[in-house]
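Propose amino acids for all 380 sites.
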C-alpha cells in the first residue's frame, strides 16, 4: 500500500484498518452505542454484535465461540494467558518453558512471574531462526506447568513448530500457549491442528483497529482473571466491552478468511520478487528469513557494511523497520537476530520488510529500487 507517496512495508508493526472493517464498526460508534450488559434494545443490539464477532473470530481459527475472550490486544492476551494460568496452577509445577525469540509481551510477563517464584527456562533457536526442538524436548519435565512459544516470529518471520511443541508438552502434562499475533490472518491457523490450549490475537496486525484483541482459551483450561471487576467475557476479562473494536476484529477475521490461500501465495511471490531484486543488485546481502517454514509476507535482510537506520534515513519513500531497538538515541541489535548467531556488528544492517494485502508488484519494484539507491549512496 502507498500513502502520501510513501510505500508501506511495515505490516508486521501494524496494518491499516480495512474499509470493510471500518464500515462495520461505524454504527457502533454512533447510533448503536449501547452497553452490551444493558437490558434495553440498544444494549441487546450491542450484545448481538459482540456475539456475531465472537463467532467470526472463532471461525478463523477453528475454535468454538465460547472459547474466545475479547481483550484490549495482544499484550493483554499474553498477560492473561501466562499470568492467568500461573495463578491457577497448583504448587507442584512451578516452571515455564519458552523460546529465546519471544515478543516483549511474552518476555515481560514471564519476568514478572520469575520474581514471584516461577522458574523460566529459555530454549534457543537454530541459525535459521526456528526453535531448537531437541533442546526444547530436553527442557521438559514433570515440573513444567506451561509452555509458551510464538507461532510466527515477528522479525524473521520464522514459523515455529508449535504442533510438535504441543504434542511434547501435553505428553509431559503441561499446558501450551502460543502468541499468534503475527500469524493469524497471514497463514491458515487451526487451534486443534496446533494442539494449543491458549492462543493470542492482536487486532491491529490483521486489518482491525488498535486496542482490541482476543485470547482463545480451550474449554477446560484453568485460568484466573488478571483484572478484577464485573463478570464480562465469561468472568475472565472484566470491563465494558469495546463493542466497535470487537465488531471490527470480527469483520476483519471474516474478511481474511475468504481467499486466504490465494493471498498467501500472492504475497509469497511478491516477497520473493523483492528478495531477488535486492540480491541481484547487492550480491552480499544476507537473507535471515528462512526459505522454508516462514511467513509469506516477511523478509528480514542484512545490508552489508551499513547501518539499517542510516539506510532507512536515506530512503524516505519507504516506511519499514530496522532490526534494532533505539533507546535514548542508542541503537542495539535485535535479540532475535543475535539469538540466531549473527555477529552484533553485522546485525546493524538488518532491515525488516513486511508486505500486506494492499502491496502490489509496483510497490515491491519501487521499494527495491529505493533501497538499492540508498545502499549505493551509503556504500560509496
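Proposal:
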Amino acid at each position: 500500500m502507498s500513502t502520501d507517496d510513501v510505500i508501506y512495508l511495515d505490516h508486521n508493526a501494524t496494518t491499516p484498518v480495512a474499509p470493510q472493517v471500518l464500515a462495520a464498526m461505524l454504527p457502533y460508534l454512533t447510533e448503536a452505542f449501547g452497553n452490551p450488559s444493558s437490558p434495553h434494545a440498544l444494549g441487546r443490539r450491542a450484545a448481538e454484535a459482540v456475539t456475531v464477532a465472537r463467532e467470526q473470530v472463532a471461525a478463523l481459527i477453528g475454535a468454538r465461540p465460547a472459547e474466545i475472550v475479547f481483550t484490549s490486544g495482544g499484550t493483554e492476551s499474553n498477560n492473561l494467558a501466562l499470568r492467568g494460568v500461573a495463578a491457577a496452577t497448583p504448587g507442584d509445577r512451578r516452571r515455564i518453558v519458552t523460546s529465546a525469540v519471544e515478543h516483549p509481551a511474552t518476555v515481560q510477563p514471564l519476568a514478572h512471574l520469575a520474581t514471584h517464584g516461577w522458574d523460566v527456562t529459555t530454549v534457543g533457536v537454530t541459525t535459521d531462526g526456528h526453535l531448537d526442538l531437541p533442546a526444547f524436548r530436553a527442557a521438559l519435565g514433570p515440573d513444567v506447568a506451561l509452555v509458551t512459544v510464538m507461532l510466527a516470529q515477528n522479525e524473521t518471520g520464522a514459523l515455529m513448530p508449535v504442533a510438535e511443541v504441543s504434542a511434547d508438552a501435553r505428553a509431559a502434562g503441561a499446558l501450551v500457549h502460543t502468541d499468534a499475533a503475527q500469524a493469524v490472518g497471514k497463514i491458515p491457523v487451526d487451534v486443534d491442528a496446533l494442539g494449543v490450549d491458549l492462543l493470542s490475537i492482536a487486532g491491529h496486525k490483521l486489518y482491525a483497529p488498535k486496542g482490541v484483541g482476543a485470547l482463545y482459551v480451550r474449554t477446560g483450561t484453568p485460568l484466573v482473571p488478571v483484572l478484577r471487576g464485573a463478570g464480562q467475557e465469561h468472568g475472565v476479562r472484566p470491563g465494558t466491552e469495546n463493542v466497535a473494536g470487537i465488531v471490527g476484529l470480527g469483520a476483519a477475521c471474516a474478511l481474511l478468511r475468504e481467499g486466504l490461500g490465494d493471498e498467501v501465495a500472492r504475497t509469497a511471490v511478491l516477497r520473493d520478487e523483492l528478495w531477488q531484486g535486492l540480491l541481484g543488485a547487492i550480491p552480499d546481502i544476507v537473507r535471515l528469513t528462512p526459505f522454508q517454514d516462514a511467513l509469506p509476507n516477511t523478509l528480514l535482510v542484512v545490508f552489508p557494511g551499513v547501518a539499517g537506520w542510516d539506510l532507512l534515513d536515506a530512503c524516505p519513500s519507504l516506511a519499514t523497520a530496522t532490526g534494532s531497538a533505539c533507546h535514548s538515541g542508542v541503537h542495539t541489535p535485535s535479540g532475535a537476530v543475535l539469538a540466531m548467531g549473527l555477529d552484533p556488528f553485522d546485525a546493524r544492517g538488518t532491515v525488516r520488510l513486511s508486505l500486506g494485502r494492499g502491496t502490489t508488484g509496483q510497490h515491491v519494484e519501487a521499494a527495491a529500487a529505493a533501497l538499492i539507491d540508498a545502499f549505493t549512496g551509503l556504500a560509496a
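The radius of gyration is 21 Å. The chain has two domains: 2-16+259-379, 19-257.
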